[in-house]
Amino acid sequence: MGRLTAHLRRAWRSRRFRQALFTWLAPALLSLVVLFGAHLRVQADTPPSTSELQQYLQNNQLGVYQGIGNDYPQIFYYYKDQSIAITNDEFPHLHPLASGQYVTWQGVVSGQAQVFLYDILNNTTLQLSLASPNEGIAMSGNHVVWQSWDGDYWQVYYYDGVQAQQITRDPNNSVRAVTDQRRIIYTEQLGPDDWKVQSYDVASGQQTTIRQGSTPTAAYPRIHEDGSVTTDFANY
Question: Where in the chain are the domains?
Fold first, then answer.
């Protein structure tokens, strides 16, 4: 035992040993924090009144996130220093987004990801999709776009604040849709490395090609606040 202790003392005096130890230990500790932190339950606070929310939204962008509640991932929003629960169902709620008074997310119902829209001022929730896996949600106000699997390809769907409709029926994957309520910009995958960015005019239904390319940099459309469109790769 004495020899082991002496050996450990000599090793600890070695700068190389300490560096190697911390190089291994730091990521391991971080992984444990992430692992257990992801399962922390969120204690929901009492929701503010509608008038308080209206005043808050005049000067603040609504912050939303997913936490654990009722043993499932649920959607919460921040109000000042409080966490307010939006959902409490017994199925996972994932990938929330907010725009003005509206929040959208994916709810995994019976193993299928569906699209939901919540009005924070009226406290109402709509399920926008009914069948097929759905993903890739984007929104502008209460206008929501997403991609839905038709059995062979991903197709773009659009909710205009009143009803949902299928926008594409292409024999290719149509993905990564975004909208500013006037246009829907999405990418059609023509081949493994061949992409075409399309613009769909909501009022007329007319489609135009913005860009076509053989690299992924032509595959990630984005509408900016000034109305301009870029298609370069970006995480957003």
Answer: 2-36
